[in-house]
Amino acid sequence: MTLTIDDVSIPDSQLAREITELVQGTASPLLFHHSSRVYYFGALAGKRRGLSFDPEILYAAAMFHDMGLTHRHSSACERFEVDGANACRSFLCSHGIAQADIDLAWTAIALHTTPGIPRHMHPVVALVTAGVEMDVLGLTYPDYSAASRQAVVQAHPRPDSFKEEIIQAFYEGIRHKPETTFGNVKADVLADKDKNFIRGNFCDVIRNSAWPG
């Protein structure tokens, strides 16, 4: 029986069960529990915002969003986000899911590390990023009740060492293809032209998040 929090639970379907089994058997416990929390926090955010979305597609996107960091799904030259999106697409295609839903899941995964854009898109795209930003960065930490946070973390443990462990997982998953980390070129322009510009640091944001630990 899956955890239900404020009427949010993992879909009780064959597709969802196969997703759980696949991700649990492929990703590390760290990534599996992180991805599960991303689903819950994303779905809870959707409920709070009154958004309409397919829980199965949101679950698929949330659970596959970091699969590109695993050895099985990591390519030699694609961004890890694209690797995860491709893995999800292949899985959903093999299960006869509608192309529009497959495209939603692909886009949600591909954009989950691109701030400022997903929230303007379809709820599935927006909510995967919302879940990631909550679990990794704690950006909306106060928006969730203490009871909700505790229930999610009790079902899918978030260890005190999570911040450093997730940074290490990112590093291990991308260090063999550093060229794929090329990102926001506007930061490079500011760094080139403004001697007082201080580049944002993703790892510092994680470490300074509202999450304890």
Topology of helices and strands:
Blueprint: H1 14-26, H2 29-49, H3 55-64, H4 80-94, H5 99-110, H6 123-137, H7 146-155, H8 162-174, H9 185-193, H10 202-207
Helix pairs in contact: 1-3, 2-3, 2-6, 3-5, 3-6, 4-5, 5-6
Describe the structure.
It is a single chain. The protein is mainly α and 213 residues long. It has a single domain (14-207), classed as Hypothetical protein af1432. Helices cover 58% and strands 0% of the residues. It has 10 helices and no strands. It starts with 13 loop residues before the first helix and ends in a 6-residue tail after the last helix. 37% of the residues are buried.
Biggest sheet layout:
none
Number of strand segments: 0
C-alpha geometry: globular
Q: What order do the helices and strands follow?
A: HHHHHHHHHH
Q: Could you tell me how far the N terminus lies from the C terminus, measured between alpha carbons in angstroms?
A: 29 Å
Average of pLDDT: 94
Counting DSSP H or I runs of 4 or more residues, the number of helices is 10
Oligomerization state of this entry? single chain
Tell me the count of domains: 1
